[in-house]
Amino acid sequence: MSALPPGSAELLPGAAARPQAPAVPLGPGPAEPLWSFLLRPLVLPFALLLGVGGAVVYGVERNDQALRSVLDAQARTQLISDLTQQVAVMENGQRGFVITGQDEFLTPYQEGQASFQAAAYALQDLSVSDGQRTNLAKVQALVGRWQQEAALPEMDARRESLDRAAARVSNGVGREILNEARDVLVLMQSRETIRLSEATQQSQTTLSAVRWISVVGLALGLTLLTVTALRVARTVTRTLRELNDGAQSIARGEYDRRLPPAPVQELSLLGSQFNAMAEAVQDREDQLRRAAHALEQTNTQLERSNRELEQFAYVASHDLQEPLRTIGSYTELLARRYSGQLDERADRYIAFTTAATQRLKTLIQDLLAYSRVRRAERTFAPVDTARLAAQLVEDMQTQIETTGARVTVGPLPTLETNPELLRHALQNLLGNALKFSAPDRAPQVGLTATAEPERWVFHVQDNGIGIAPEYHERIFGVFQRLHGMDEYAGSGIGLAVTRSAAEQLGGELWVDSTPGQGSTFHLALPLIPPTGVVP
């Protein structure tokens, strides 16, 4: 029975015609584009955050300027303090020499003089105003005047006598000059302290303003973003919920359900696509129902045909054996009785007939084995595969001795499976490993097993002629041969029987091979036997 053509009006038995609601497409209408719907509410929060960011950047710049002013004021304060200290060092060194007349007191005086000049030069570079530079010049002039009018004359007098030096000191000129210099330094120190305080206050004010602007701006911006996000999320969630409810209704078969319009163009268009899809699914479901009914009837016919074909193959293979035995027997009688009595051509004809009869016998037996495997009962029992392998090796002992082969069997498990099907599979794999050997070396065949999750994998490895990659799947087909009859005997059905047995056991069969190096066939069987009928 062929499937009904799409669009056919024929209904299945018991199926009622479903009324189809007219399609109501949901066009975008006045809906807003998604990008506008998402970005438009964010304009104000982003503008606010941008303003806060600009204010913060400006405040940080102002604070950097204030910090630089603080650092400069601290440096100038330290230099003024150094000037004051070096004036005292020079005065103490000069007085020590005047009092004691010892030259070692001149060292602090000279060092103080050098340090005073260095600090004065540094302060000159950092001076912040003309008044400060004027005061600094005044201090330098007073210190220079003290040296010229008091310090040096007093030290020269001391070198002559203490009395002359005391007379020079008693006039008080040096003390008055240094006191005037100290007064100027104190004035400079007080003004620099004021500048330092003002710069510190400015930095604190700027930081406080930046802090408040940041906190208030960020709080307001986050509030606006939260409100905007909640609004967008609520709208999108509501729309998606409506779309989801509509889609679930359509999935339940309510194809006349129509989705409401959405405030976003893209979602509204999605709703219209759902509506169009519902109508298309309704039409497709009717077509699939009709096609499924036709396919069910076709499968039923195919199953019946397969059973009949398997039965025919079994009966034909079984019934062909008797006439084939008769043909073979009489051909052998002709060969024995009339061998040498007929001409050479007759003997060759008899030999051809005998060989063809033997090949046909092998083919029928293999076909019967294939049919038996396909029809085998799915009964399972514990099988000691090590014992089974030993029996197979013993049965093949003649072939092993003839080929000079060496067969090794590793540790094998006890497995819940079908013993007859497993025997068929392992027998064919071991037989092929012995048969397809390389002409230049004795066969080396190994049978091992490895445990994997939920299955055992048996490996039959040989050192034979190997198989090219393009034939790795072809060799499992029925009557598939890669070599001529004169090279290797056989019907080309053995691996098909083996794969069919593996499938009946709920497993799989595959091969890894390299031409000229040998092959390894892998037979995977499940730990738990399959239930039901394996196709």
Describe the structure.
67% of the residues lie in helices and 8% in strands. The strands form two sheets. It has a five-stranded mixed sheet. The chain has a two-stranded antiparallel ribbon with strand order 1-3. It is built from twelve helices and seven strands. The chain has helices at residues 34-39, 43-100, 106-126, 130-160, 162-170, 173-251, 265-338, 344-375, 385-395, 397-403, 419-435, 494-504; strands at residues 381-384, 406-409, 414-417, 444-452, 455-461, 508-514, 518-526. By secondary structure, the protein is α+β, with helices and mostly antiparallel strands.
Quick structural gist:
The protein is of the alpha+beta class and 535 residues long.
Q: Cα-atom Rg, whole angstroms?
A: 56 Å
What's the helix count?
A: 12
Strand content: 5-15%
Protein structure class: alpha+beta
Provide key terms for this protein.
single chain; 535 residues; alpha+beta; 5-stranded mixed β-sheet; 12 helices; 8% strand; elongated
Q: What is the secondary structure topology, with strand pairs?
A:
Layout (H helix, E strand, L loop, with lengths): L33 H6 L3 H58 L5 H21 L3 H31 L1 H9 L2 H79 L13 H74 L5 H32 L5 E4 H11 L1 H7 L2 E4 L4 E4 L1 H17 L8 E9 L2 E7 L32 H11 L3 E7 L3 E9 L9
Parallel strand pairs: 2-4
Antiparallel strand pairs: 1-3, 4-5, 5-7, 6-7
